[in-house]
Amino acid sequence: MNTNELTMDLPRNALKNVSLKQLANQPEVVEEILSEQHDALQRTEQLGLRKLGWGLKSLIWVLRLYVIFMVIVVMINIAHTLT
Amino acid sequence: MSNREAAARALDRMRVMNAKHERKWGRLLWLLVGPGILVMLGENDAPSMLSYAATGSSFGIGFFIPFVLLTFAMAFVAQEITVRLGATTQAGHAELIYRRFGRFWGNFAMVDLIFTNFLTLMTEFVGIVAGAGYFGIPKWAAVSGSILLISGAYLFRRYSSWEKIVLGFALFNLIFIPVAILAHPNWGSIGSAFLTFQPLPGGFGSHTIMLLLADIGATITPWMLFFQQGAVTDKGLSVQDVKQGRIDTALGSLLAALAAIATIIATAPLYLHHMNASQFGAAQFAQALQPYIGHVGAAMFALGILEAGLVAATTISTSSAYAFGEVSQKAHSLNRPFREAKGFYFILFAVLVVAGAIVVIPGFPLEMVVIIVNVLAVLTMPPAIGFLLILANDKGIMGKHANTLLFNILGISIGIFISLAGVIYALTVIFPGFQL
What we know:
The complex is a heterodimer. Chain A is built from 6 helices and no strands. By secondary structure, chain A is mainly α. Chain A folds into 2 domains: 3-45, no CATH class; 50-83. Chain B has one domain (34-430): Amino acid/polyamine transporter I. Classes of the chains: A mainly alpha, B mainly alpha.
């Protein structure tokens, strides 16, 4: 059930006047409201490692080496500035 | 998720549902905006505003005004992806990288984040100290006062309250707009610069490239990806809220671009009067501008730098804490009280206190850190863009919300553009005579 469908079933006044404390005492309501988020999180938690092909692996390595090289360049720049 | 955290998020969701049901679109937008505006105005931080000020005083009104607009358009493309990632997975950016790429690559991404976040946080305190210094407030008082103020926003133990308080502070960034008006700019030159990307006095020399890189670093940095995705998750945005998330991000980009362009315009008189202000600190900028924008304008400029540091110190320390919580799989939500998320709040305050303490050490080379921090942020960006695009195209994660061809073209172009800017910077450092 998406949030739009869910709102159709809830009484308007209940939506307006409910407090955090009241809601904390109604875990089943909380669960229903957040069901979409829970489902999404559950799907995420079931994800395993992504298989990386040689292309993607090389790309990530190149980008990593780029950062290491650039950090060295920045250090050279600092040394130039200080001297 | 604790009862309180879930109830707080559910309450926010109920308000969103109610606004949708009653078709109160203005209220709906008010409830759903936040992460995008915060991240963009948060990135208009002290070193960024100083970069824009250095740009205005070095080049006046010309190439950099439309260029800044372009960099914020790039920031929008990158940040929009984090909205979709957060809403689809309900997980933070660090968590997704660890989950999909493993600990080896995750650790690299975290080292980049922690390193750049900490350096940036120090520069925020430099901005706070410099801004407060203009009003005669001593360093220690500025640092401790700002930490107390930042802590105050967390006392509500609600993400939504924290968000609206920081949002209020962040909007203060727009103070640079009246400062720009006080500088009595030539509006014709501004219009012409937008259309022609001209003039660019001196061409693309090493100083221009350094400022170019610093201005890119002032709009696109790794912490922004981690912060916005974490905030989207903490706010509980769902895939149905992506449209509003986009509006939020676009609005943030626009406001931040306006403040950035206003800063360039405000400091342009220093260029016109041939003042070499490229290495000025915040307070020095305010003092140097005083003859052109008056006492009130200069005070507003100093206040703007102070505010920029304050807001960014809040968002950057929160992004560090989100990332720590996601990686250590410990509680990481602003909807939790301190006793339920000790590690999260400890990291948040520890980075603030340590960074603030370093800034008050006498003789610490603060100006050097300020200059280098934006450059470093850009140079660590290509791998972050790489991970972002791989995740955004991961059908296992994103399903039908995966990147479209257009967003891939834009994302890859941004990655290439930033990488090339870094390569050109490297060439100017290794071969000092290098010129494009």
